[in-house]
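Supplementary Note 2. Why include the ligand at all?

Several targets in our set were suspected to adopt different conformations when bound, so apo predictions alone were not considered sufficient. For every target with a known small-molecule partner we therefore ran a joint prediction. The input for threonylcarbamoyladenylate is given below.
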Amino acid sequence: METRLLSVNPDSPDPNVLREAAGILRGGGVVAFPTETVYGLGADALNAAAVGRIFAAKGRPARNPIIVHVRSIERARELVSQWPPAAQSLAEQFWPGPLTLVLKKRACVPDVVTAGRDTVALRCPNHAVALALLDAAGCPIAAPSANLSEQLSPTRASHVVRSLGGRIEMILDGGPAAVGLESTVVDMTTQSPRLLRPGAITLDALRDACGPVEIVTESSTEKEAFASPGQMARHYAPRTRLICCDATTAEMTVVAEVRSGKRVGWMRWAGGSSIANLDRGRRASVVIKMPTGAEAYAARLYAALHDLDAAGLDVIVVSLPPDTERWRAVRDRLRRATSSGTPASPARGNMTDPSGDGNG
Ligand code: TXA
Ligand code: MG
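The joint prediction is reproduced in token form.
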């Protein structure tokens, strides 16, 4: 299939381009589009066959449900059978924005979207292109991140081209995503809301808006895997081996790997001293100095991992930011990017995060 790549102004997209994209969606096709978090791969959420095409293009397991994007609270309420006061508070405060609410669904939402669950995840994105596309299509848009299943999420159109080019009808290029990490996901079907996936909307901000919020801790129990289906171990991962550790260990690891002849990618953070001649003129290694603020770091994270992953390196070493609340989402994604299914050997400096950090 030929994939058309069209540029759109991220602040005021061309209505003609949107009409074309909306036409594809209404016809049961799939279109990748920018949101403030990551690029999404969209289809008409009320068309089961179209949503099936998302699963096929991504190679996504059928058991992993998809977020439905809506234009407003009113449109959201048409898709759910319950709308608790806490959902109203959170939506009023954070929509449009990087917050996804899981609620009891109505029958109009096809089973393929929710992987057979009786709940649906809803989000109103804060991006002019995504909102205009919702308007033009006139339907809710089911959209997971626009990457092959288990690969890094895309924060630029070029990431989508690399991953899904030839598999989908159209990609709208609206430039780099501002937030850079997938939305915060909160389950609103339990007594107290539960944080299923950390993101830009922090736990503190959620609690300020709606009272107590529980954290679903990393666990291998089936019950919790069921609560948070997309949060299964390896996710958001580069193909290159990834090691995460504190700044000092990271620096030692980088030196050791370079000395053993490896081509190393190093995502430095504050605290690591600069190693000028990393590999003594061989120039086989790459250093990316990451921003020291959590929001700027998040916006840069996936692009840095994509770049290093494409650089033909033997290993990527990440100096971890601190284990504090404002770094929760970044550390969560880094942890997922490192889990390999086999226990990490501490001697390798692999990231361990016993943490209190909670969510998986
Ligand atoms: O920022 C985002 O959320 C992006 C943009 C495109 O909106 N989307 C995204 O989608 O990250 P995806 O499919 O990569 O992640 C969706 C997450 C997964 O962890 C999935 O399991 C969870 O939301 N989810 C979806 N429906 C759910 C449901 N009914 N119950 C519990 N979790 C659900
Ligand atoms: Mg994803």
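The first helix runs from residue 15 to 26. The first strand starts at residue 4 and ends at 7. Comparable summaries for the other entries are listed in the accompanying table.
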